[in-house]
Each structure stands twice: as C-alpha cells, then as structure tokens.
Amino acid sequence: MEKSSKPIKEHLQDFLDYCEVEKGLRDNTQENYKNYLQKFFNWLDQAKLSSLLPHQLTSDHIWAYRLYLSRTPSPATGKLLSKGTQNYYLIALRAFLGYFVAKDVLSLPPDKISLSKPDRGSKSIKFLSLDQIGKLLASIEPKDDISTRDRAILEAFFSTGLRIAELVSLNLEQFNSLKDKKDMELGVIGKGGKPRVVYFSERALNYIRKYLEIRNDVKHANQKALFINFRDKKDDADARLTPRSIERMVKKYALLSGVPIFTTPHTLRHSYATDLLNQGVDLRSIQEFLGHSNIATTQIYTHVTNKRLRDIHHQFHSDPDKNN
User: Which of 308, 284, 298, 307 minimizes the C-alpha distance to 84?
Assistant: First the structure.
C-alpha cells in the first residue's frame, strides 16, 4: 500500500470513475454515492480537515463524523436523521474506503465503519413464512376464470418479486412464446424507469398457462393486458386489472387462508426476498432481483435474517456447562 499525497476530497472523481468502469454501477448509484459523500466532505470542511490525506483518517475521525450525522437535522424536514438514513451516508463512506483498498492506497479499512442499529419503533418489513405462503396459495382452487386468474397472479408475485405496478403492466404478447417452457426470463421496467429481468418458475408458468387457456378466447382477444377483469361487460373497454383490485383480491385470500391480515402484494415481494436471503443468496444478487437502485434499500432484509440466525444459534449451539 502507498500513501497518497492527495487529500481525501480530491479522490472523489477517481472513485466515481472506478464505480463506473470497474464496478459497473449505474449512473443513479454513482450519483447517490456522490451526494452522500458530500456530507462527509462538508464535515471535513467544518472540522477544518479539508486537507486530510487518506492515510491520516482515523477511527476517531469516523466517530466524530457519526456524532455529526446524529446531531445534524435534515435540510428538507428539519428533523434529525433516522438511523436508517445515517446508514446511507456510512455505506457510501465504506464504499469510498473500499476504493482505496482496491487501488492500494493506504487508508482506514472499510470494516472500521459499522452501521447504526435501526431506531426502536422504526418501520420493519412484514413477510410470510413458506408455510403461510403455501396456505395462501392453496386457498385458491382454480375452478373458473376468476379463481384461475387469481392463482396465476399470486404465483407470479411470489415467483418473481414483482411490484404491483409491474405486474399490472404485463401484456399478453410478452407470454406468446410460453408453450412448454420450464422457466422464463422477462424484462420489465421498474420503479424510476429502471429495467431489470425477473424470473418465472415452472410452477408459476403452469398456473399462467391454465389462465391463458381461459384468457385467449374470442371475447377477450382485443385486450392488450395479461391480467384482466372478466366482469367487464364492454368488449372494447380497457379491462386491465387495477392495483386496487389486486390489493382487494390478495386481502380476500389472506382472510380465507388465515394468514396475517397485513398481507398485501408488497408482503409477497418481501416474502420472496426474505426466502432468497434465508436460502443463502447474497445481498447484491437480491438487490438485482428486486430492482433496488441502492444496496441500502435491500439492507432492511438483513434485520430479518439476523434475528432468524440468532434464534437458530440459541436453539442448536451447544453450551459446555450443560454437558458437565
């Protein structure tokens, strides 16, 4: 490792270039890093540390910066930053220090920056266990056009992690080549116009095929949408299901199956992500599956699995005293 003669602040553009070329990060992720690091640079200015070199950065500096984050109100709201928001700034700084490591520039190691624990009472994600997902899906017996459609929708949600707006936007033509496929990749445009690929399992595709056998009749031939309202009496009207109608449908089956009343389409998205993480999928891959622009957004799922791992440890790890 070599000492750099450039102050920390002057490495910003090199870091952003590294993110683009070597890390392959998208423009909006780079912009987020730039914005979050600007607060660190502001703190350096206020602390009269503008000329601080990478190798001169210490754990004491990081502690002082964390105090600054915890005591500085947001310009937008005037309220103190939540622990979750503080973590965004810390994650950006860790990435910045990771760049120094990659470039053999002597600096404080990234793992010297720990993240803040979430605020008590802060919003936590709600998800269903696999058993509860099974009960929810099994509560829909595909026996007519509506129940067949509803089963296909719920299977699609849990297979892909689609947002409700993304599922509503699906069109019939995207499934023209379904045939006997055992799985399927499909490009969707997500939040903020961000494209990504989602994956339909063989199980989900089987239920979508059953739905398409009903969906592809003469009466609905002119409808562009994949999932439609069969009760619409006007053949030429746009029968695409609305997000609200899907929310009501999910709530209905949640009540029928006895799963928690908080269940919504977004609960199924959370359940999808939590299941992947519990199966050992890394956080970066889950970020891609969900279409999150920032890894900090995906970080919320670690709180769920951290508790699960703790419970497993308590249940199964041996206590030497008990064997004496």
Answer: 298
Does residue 121 have a pLDDT over 60? no
In a domain, 203, yes or no: yes
Residue 69, judged by CB atoms within 10 A of its CB (0-12, 13-18, 19+), counts as buried
In tens, the pLDDT along 243-269 reads: 999 999 999 999 999 999 899 999 999
Residues 299 and 268 in one domain: yes
179 belongs to a structural domain? yes
The answer to whether 175 and 226 have CB atoms below 8 angstroms apart is yes
> CATH no. for residue 107?
1.10.150
Indicate if the alpha-carbon torsion angle 218, 224, 228, 232 is positive or negative.
Answer: negative
Asked if the structure places residue 123 within a domain, the reply is: no
Query: Looking at the annotation, which residues are catalytic?
Result: 163, 191, 266, 269, 292, 301
* Total of domains in the chain: 2
pLDDT at position 235, please?
57
The HSE-up count of residue 46 (CA atoms within 13 Å, CB side) is 12
- For residues 288 and 194, the answer to whether their CB atoms sit within 8 Å is no
Q: Would the pLDDT of 76 be above 80?
A: no
Indicate the pTM of the whole model.
0.59
Residue-wise pLDDT for 125-158, tens only, equals: 789 999 999 999 999 999 999 999 999 999 999 9
Burial class of residue 203, CB neighbours in 10 A (0-12, 13-18, 19+): middle
Do residues 34 and 12 make contact, with C-beta atoms less than 8 angstroms apart?
yes
We report the CATH number of the domain holding residue 141 as 1.10.443.10
Domain match, 23 and 96 both: yes
Residue 240 predicted with pLDDT over 70: yes
**Position 53 in a domain:** yes
Is 230 in the same domain as 156?
A: yes
